[in-house]
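A further point concerns the way the authors explain their paired sequence and structure data. Nothing conveys this as quickly as seeing an actual entry. An entry of this sort, consisting of the sequence and the corresponding backbone structure tokens, reads as follows:
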Amino acid sequence: MSFQDEMKQIFLRVTAGEVEPEEWKTWWNSNRSKLEESLNRGDRGRMMPALWDANYYWMAKTQSGVAYYFHAQGRPVKVSDYYEKKMQEEEMRERQKAMEGYHRDTAFARQRWEAYLEGHPTDMIAFDWKSLLGTPARQKPARDFAYKHARETEQWKECGEELKLRLKENLQAKIAPVTKAYGMKKAGPKTFVREKNGLVTRIQFIGYFRGGGYEAMFCYFCPLYAIQYGILGLPGHISQGENFQRMQRDWGVIQYGMEAVDVAMVERINRKFDDILIYLADGVLPEWQKIDSLETYFAEERRDYLKATRTGPKDPRTGRPMWNLDQGGKEDPWRADDYLFGVWDLLNGKETEGYARLEKCVGHNSDYMKERLKGFPNACNDPRDAMAVMYRNAQLFLGTKEIPDAEKRRDRIRETYEEVCRFMRYYHGLAKKTERNLE
């Protein structure tokens, strides 16, 4: 058999998924000089990239290069999905191994946090959220469309209306019940909120700015007096882990209203809301439920645990962290953490530390706010302007520093806290519109 025949034979075996990575590596290295004569540089690079390693991820690349070789010769071939499936299994094993290492590395911080929680138990929620997965109850049958992609104004309108119907069905059938189980109430057709012991929980679906579906889901958990940025959040594996990444994939199916919302599209929308439900019910909401007081929210054990989980393990494919919430020592650009911890310090009698933090927050934002308030004098009362609201709150707390009498100052700090919380109930969607004096 000539080398050309041998080469084409093994190429055909590769397209059929019959050559294992080690066999391919051995054959290629044994015939490197002949391959350089038989293949051009582009074909060699596609079949055996410079970083090639003996695994199924790179074998799938090889298969793609071989298929391209036959296609360029006018002989397209059928390609097996064997390497693709093995690659997914291989990647799943490697990711699982990486996550096991991550949990071992963060075990000490997690155990301290769990020990703290044992001494501060909360009511756990028993809710069968898995029964909500799948097709929403009483979902209307999918429509038949005479087109796939909307091209005309009427078609866009038709697709948009149908998309909104399917989003509403899923929101009511899946998200509303699980949020209700955790004590949240509706603050609008797409928003759920809860206030408990000085803490606020909010989940909101953001409408796509060009019309259509949901651009994003916005969820946060923070003290009532705080804003939703730069705050203590969730462990990285919950906020940015596998459930989050699965939820983010193919998000466009519930965002854009430019395709016919037919049977296949309705099923994709249902599956995407399953992903959202799993992210919330199997991670976010139970984690929030563990915290039912400001003391627990600010507990040193929790802060250390969150710090330990900021950076995920390396992705086996890319070599980069699976998530990275660490700011690398940089301060948050709004100094929202200084406001958050500054107020908490004041409430706990640590006035020196608290006022220092608030001065830092107000000083950092003062130049921006001067310009902002020139064009928008009422920005500090507008829930859409989080920075302006935070700046005004920080000013109010900082103003108590001027009271010389210690007892009167403490009383004024508490009064300011109550005043700020009254307005922030409106800001977070817990109460109707509330105005306050901006002087």
